[in-house]
Amino acid sequence: MRIQLGWFDGTLAKRIAGIAAGELEPAATRNAATVMVVREAPAGGVEILMLKRPASMKFAGGAYVFPGGSVDSADFGAADADDAKANAGWHGPSAEEFGERLGTTPELARALVWAAVRETFEEAGVLLAGTPDGTLVVPDGPDWEADRAALNEGAISLAGLLGRRGLVLRADLLTPWARWITPLAEPKRFDARFFAAALPAGQQATAHAAEAEEIVWVRPDDALDAARRGEMSLLPPTATTLSEFTLASGVADILGRAREVAPIQPVLVNSEDGRAWLEVPDGIGYPL
């Protein structure tokens, strides 16, 4: 399927031509993690948490996305003053099991899970963590907001934060879902693994001002309908995932799926009129 997207311009068309001719090298990909946080919808099915990117952002400004971002050095366990003292722990499937599901090494799989939990807390205030005995935490109050701010600023690592509070990362709350790789011609590229997770009981999602203009809970089919009306901008991976969630009977239906996480990489091409188009692989169910 071929898609024309509004933010493709002449500069991108030149990059496509340059890479095709061997005159330009594609940008390297950065590993990233994205989390679809879901809750039961009142009338059945699920609602999914989405953030609206600030309109000022250069890429996909104003688009609605799921919480997520790049893996950083702390996610790989790089020691700092906090990490050296931390004993945050890990509850759930092992890094080896995640690696098998995600098609990667245990080291990268572990870092992706840490990044998924960190980014979800930074951007949406939802924390997938709890006490060693399995009790989930509710991050509420000024002290938690201060910790969230420090995490966003890089003043503390997630491992340090959890260790200081005597908490463990709840890897068992994450279900591997998909893998999307940015097209070769894009100047900024990601190798993003998508996870699904239920909103923990008692928690409320709140947006971080620098990351989102607003935060919404929306039924997947309503989001797709809004996109068709031009009221909501969605990237192809986001639209495809929403389409996959439209048939879910509830949160347990989503989290109970053992999906094959195979890489999906769209291709950017130039048409005869000089416009850039995105070709999405057949069979993935792109709905728009």
Tell me the total number of β-strands.
Answer: 15
Beta-strand proportion: 15-25%
Our count of domains comes out at 1
CATH top level assignment: Alpha Beta
- From the helix content, strand content and strand pairing, which structural class follows? alpha/beta
Query: What distance separates the N and C termini?
Result: 10 Å
Count of alpha and pi helical runs: 9
> Mean pLDDT across all residues, rounded?
89
CATH-defined architecture:
Alpha-Beta Complex
What are the defining features of this structure?
9-stranded mixed sheet, globular, alpha/beta, 288 residues, 30% helix, Nucleoside Triphosphate Pyrophosphohydrolase, 15 strands
How does this model look, in words?
This protein is α/β, with parallel strands linked by helices and 288 residues long. The protein has one domain (25-262): Nucleoside Triphosphate Pyrophosphohydrolase (Alpha-Beta Complex), CATH 3.90.79. It is 30% helix and 24% strand. It is built from nine helices and 15 strands. The protein has helices at residues 10-20, 81-85, 95-102, 106-124, 142-153, 158-164, 220-228, 236-245, 251-255, and strands at 2-3, 29-40, 46-52, 63-65, 68-70, 90-91, 129-130, 168-170, 175-181, 189-198, 214-218, 233-234, 263-264, 267-270, 276-279. The strands form three sheets. Strands 2, 3, 4, 5, 9, 10, 11, 12 and 13 form a nine-stranded mixed sheet that branches. A three-stranded antiparallel sheet has the order 1-15-14. Strands 6-8-7 form a three-stranded mixed sheet, covered by helices on one side. Strand 9 and strand 10 form a beta hairpin. Helix 4 (106-124) crosses helix 5 and helix 7 (220-228) crosses helix 8. The protein is globular. Residues 78-87 have low confidence and may be disordered.
